[in-house]
UniProtKB/TrEMBL annotation:
It comes from Microbispora oryzae. GO terms for molecular function: alpha-L-arabinofuranosidase activity; polysaccharide binding. The active site is at residues 377, 452. Disulfide bonds join 179-189, 239-244, 332-333. This is Cellulose binding domain-containing protein. One of its GO terms (biological process) is arabinose metabolic process. Residues 28-137 form the CBM2 domain. Residues 136-174 are annotated as: Disordered. The keyword Phosphoprotein does not apply. InterPro entries: A-L-arabinofuranosidase_B_cat, ABFB, CBD2, CBM2/CBM3_carb-bd_dom_sf, CBM2_carb-bd_dom_sf, ConA-like_dom_sf.
Length: 495
């Protein structure tokens, strides 16, 4: 089915936009307001559709937002992420989710939703941000009563309002990092993890934490510069003369989806579960030293993110990770992605995670891997069925990019690439396996093991793998967005 791309307003073939225009009144204190809204239907099926909405603030910074609109053909929102929705008849109100309440001047935020429709699915005619209708420019309104003198209240000439700008290309800026690129494509990161570098150009926080054995104290490892690579010297100094483990990978997205090792006080685990050694593998990224998260059997990391932005149920999502084709095995299951909050194998479709391993779950595989597959629970899928996918191929390079995206109802795609050069190879882009439509995602995040692993009364991870960086996003990323992410990864200079 051809996926419609609905737009509010068209100019020279660019994305639909809406903003605010008005008059300028000269007063002692003034507040500028303005917005643009991009509304895109990115998936459609009989009786249902998925959409992404991006709000760009053109006026003064806002702290707390409310977007309203009306559906004209009986559409109903059934699930929404990165916001809170209420709907009364045709009237829809979406408010911020707390973590995305602030939008600076020129900044944007996005949310997505699944909806139902019957007959037609027209685009909403207009939007209002915090009660002000959006049509494309900026209004400066007085914070006190207007001046009585007509000459002190000149109206803005038509040229004073900025003309609507085109929607941002996923590769709009060479300084954009993976999560900037995903956000520009309308699929913002809801979790972002790395031991090697920042995944947002504005990120200046900590990447991970190490704990040394000599005195059990911990140290956070941050970045050298804002948007830069890891400060490995901090780890080297702290861990000198003793051994260190990685206790937690911090979430860079602002959602708080930190990954603690299973077996910690934060995520209790089985007696066999323990954190990964922090110093097993060093590398360079952009010429700067860094360390990997080097997973061996008994190591794994987890987070229950179902209330902090991780897609659940049939909500679409995408994800990627940079891993290695030289440190893998056939044990279950080196995964990164969406998993069960119960840490049990609950149902087909309860997981949606990248698997990178030599494991041939259903048999009949060609070669010995390692392969990029989808762990959808109750099996690792090389394509759209239990049969071997002839488009599969092994990725044996030192650094590998693996990607998975799933619209939650009908379609998923698998891709892989050398993380040092070249573009993505599409391994599968088609129907979900029988029994996995619709998906039943629970919204936890797993790294290093399968979903039914490592809880206090369970066993330990059996897999081996390497994790350098990865992110999960809300919405179904476009191929252009994923290509731009891969271009950034190759430019990062993994060596």
């Amino acid at each position: 089915m051809k996926i419609p791309r609905l737009r509010l307003w068209l100019a020279a073939g660019v994305a639909a936009v809406a903003g605010l225009t008005g008059t300028l009144t000269t007063t002692a204190a003034q507040a500028a307001a303005g917005c643009r809204v991009d509304y895109t239907v990115n998936n459609s099926w009989p009786g249902g559709f998925g959409a992404n909405v991006t709000i760009t603030n053109l006026g003064d910074p806002v702290n707390g937002w409310r977007l309203t609109w009306s559906f004209t053909a009986g559409q109903t929102i059934t699930q929404l992420w990165n916001g809170t929705v209420s709907q009364s008849g045709s009237q829809v109100t979406v408010t911020d989710a707390g973590y995305n309440a602030s939008i600076g001047t020129g900044g944007n935020t996005s949310f997505g939703f699944n909806g139902s429709w019957n007959g037609t699915n027209p685009v909403p005619a207009s939007f209002a941000l915090n009660g002000t209708t959006c049509t494309g420019g900026v209004t400066t309104s007085p914070s006190s009563s207007p001046s009585a003198s007509p000459s002190s209240s000149p109206s803005v000439s038509p040229s004073a309002s900025p003309s609507p700008s085109p929607s941002v290309s996923p590769s709009a800026s060479p300084s954009n990092l993976p999560c900037d690129i995903y956000a520009a494509g309308g699929t913002p990161c809801v979790a972002a993890h790395s031991t090697t570098r920042a995944l947002f150009r504005s990120y200046s926080g900590n990447l991970y934490q190490v704990r040394r054995s000599s005195d059990n104290t911990t140290r956070n490892i941050g970045v050298l510069t804002t948007g830069g690579t890891a400060n490995a010297a901090t780890q080297d100094s702290f861990c000198a003369g003793t051994s260190c483990v990685i206790t937690v990978l911090y979430d860079q997205s602002g959602h708080g989806n930190d990954l603690w090792y299973q077996g910690s006080s934060v995520v209790p685990g089985s007696p066999q579960s323990k954190p990964a050694t922090a110093t097993t593998e060093s590398l360079t990224v952009g010429g700067n030293k860094a360390y990997s998260l080097y997973i061996n059997p008994s190591n794994s990391y987890w987070r229950d993110g179902h209330t902090t932005g991780v897609p659940t149920g049939t909500a679409p999502e995408g994800m990627y990770m940079v891993t290695s084709g030289t440190h893998v095995n056939s044990g279950c299951c080196f995964d990164y992605g969406n998993s069960e909050t119960t840490r049990k194998a609950d149902a087909a479709g309860a997981m949606d995670a990248i698997n990178f391993s030599k494991q041939c779950w259903f048999g009949g595989c060609s070669g010995s891997g390692p392969w990029v597959q989808a762990d959808l629970e109750w099996g690792l899928f090389p394509g759209g069925s239990q049969s071997w996918n002839p488009n599969q191929r092994a990725f044996t390079s030192k650094f590998v990019t693996a990607m998975l995206k799933n619209n939650g109802t009908t379609r998923f795609a698998l891709k892989g690439a050398n993380a040092q050069s070249g573009g993505m190879t599409t391994l599968w882009d088609g129907a979900l396996p029988n029994g996995y439509n619709p998906m039943k995602k629970q919204g936890a995040i797993i790294l290093g093991s399968g979903g039914d692993c490592c809880k206090p009364d369970g066993g330990a991870n059996l897999s081996a793998g390497t994790f350098y960086e990865g992110a999960m996003v809300a919405g179904y990323p476009s191929d252009a967005t994923e290509n731009a992410v891969q271009a950034n990864i190759t430019a990062a200079g993994y060596r």
